[in-house]
Amino acid sequence: MQLIHYRYKIPLFIILLLFGGIYCAISLVNHYHFRTNALDLGMFNHAIYYFSRFQNAIFSLSVNGEIGNYFADHFSPLTVLLAPFRYIFGTYTLLVLQIAAVLFGGYGVFKLAVQSGIKHWLALVVLVQFFSIWAIYSALAFDFHTNVLAAMFVPWLVYFYRIENRRWFLIFFVLILFAKENMALWLVFIMIGLMLRKNADLKQYLRFELPLTLIAFLYTIIIIGWAMPELNSNGINVQMNRYAYLGDGLTNKLQTILSSPIDTFELLFYQTKFPDAPVEIKAEFHITMLLSGGFLLLFRPKYLVMLIPIYAQKFLSATMEQWSIIDHYSVEFVPIISLAVIDCMRWIPKNGFKASLLIIVTVSTIVVSLVKLDSNNTPWYNNINVDLFSAKHYQTGFDRNEIIDALAHIPEQAPIAVGSNLAPHLAFRERIYFFPNIKDAEYVSLIYKNRDLYPLNESSLYPLVDTLIEKGSFELIYFTPNTMVLRRKGIIDDPKDILPAPRLAWNARVEEFRQIILKDSVWLENVRQKSIVNGITVEEMIQNDAVFLTEQELKKDHP
To answer: How far apart are CA 153 and CA 106, in angstroms?
Structure first.
């Protein structure tokens, strides 16, 4: 094992510190300014809350409102090991650990480069190239995901394989295996790639590599094909829904893929199954990957073998964002690109050419990341989460104290229904739901402006809030231009039940409804709260309600 020369420890530390600061400026700043989401940081924070209390986690932040076992949605036992850290870092826990994992993975790349015989200063350039690949920034800009941790363990897995330290190799093998349900299949192909590179005899592989490959393959079949459907109340693996067009069950999907290999290969480049999807999204990924050092994979095809399941899960999916360069869907390419870079540097004989090529690859990687993170072909892409050079990235977009004041109105353990950007901050409680799913929530809290309202929009959100107030089930207890909090109260009679029967002329009927509203204190209070939500006067809201009720009455008379 080669030791790091003392002259390079300070530059190494500076590089780690520099990129650590950049990563924090992306991930932690986004969370601070309420730009993280229910899916997936809210879901993971809710899970570690349960695990830290030695309880099995539930998944209650689904868009459709279903409540199920956490492991039915993401089979990632590794999350259990992360749970105790929530007592130190709070809702930032998983983001901090994700950044630490990326830095740790980079250090593993540096160690692997030095172990491969590359000079220390060139190994530092390899490290910079690794830290500059766009997929890391895209992943950090979008919450927390366990496949990021798995990808960052790969350099260490390969490093300990190369130095024949089986104990630590097995530790990282298990960590990757337990990171996420699909990582086991990736391990199968990583093991195949390692064996192809080692080029030993079959008897040697039978003692170590092949048994581990078989274990990873069986784990894939058991977890994806049996355990996750078994844990789901509907008896399905919801993660496989994006591949539903390939057939039912793993066997049928595999049969579809193998029976039409040409069609399957074309899906790497074209949307043959989805003709309306933008053609350029898949092409953009390939170009971005190649210009980020991926072209060296063509000279080291053994590493391309490691990427077979990653290409398949990415491009056979029915979801457009998975094809793209955004979010966490490309991070597995990062360590494999670095393995190819290291191997190519190792076999180039002349140091001058080696250094020139590495610098060109690094500069290309940096430029591509800057360009593609600023704008790309994904239709709904917004660069604010990763635009470090813009003042907007470091701003909430409105008074952040509004949100802090709003959250102070919600008891620590009260069941709540929240909008997406609030969920990660409020997930440390037993019951939390993704609005508009309310169930037994005692409070509803929303950022209703200057944020994505998914799965709603403004035109659907306001009527829902109006209905909650109008029916008397909730009262508005906090309201600002961007944030609101509602609290559950006792159910009152439906106002329609106390309307008089006579049918009068239009204007007279509107006026009669106005008088009914004005004389009913409960109804009047509901109208007052609705007027605040809609930004109009109480009188205008009374008139709106009176007109609406008159219109509904006329519809009954003249259907």
So the answer is: 10
368, 372, 373, 366: which is closest to 125 by C-alpha? 366
Q: Is the pLDDT of residue 363 over 60?
A: yes
pLDDT in tens, 28-44: 999 999 999 999 999 99
Is 496's pLDDT higher than 80? no
Q: What is the DSSP string of 7-45?
A: HHHHHHHHHHHHHHHHHHHHHHHHHHTT---IIIIIHHH
Spatial neighbors of 254 by CB under 8 A, at least 6 apart, are none
Q: Cα dihedral sign for 247, 250, 256, 262?
A: positive
> What is the rounded CA–CA span in Å between residue 334 and residue 288?
12
Residue 441 phi, psi (nearest 5): -60, 140
The Cα 139–Cα 152 span in angstroms is: 12
Task: Look up residue 363 and give its two tokens.
Answer: 């500069």
Bridge partners, residue 479, by sequence: 484
- Within 10 angstroms of residue 175's Cβ, the number of other Cβ atoms is 18
> For residue range 162-214, what is the model confidence (pLDDT) as tens digits?
999 999 999 999 999 999 999 999 999 999 999 999 988 888 999 999 999 99
H/E element, 484: strand 483-488
Q: Does the pLDDT of residue 493 top 60, yes or no? A: no
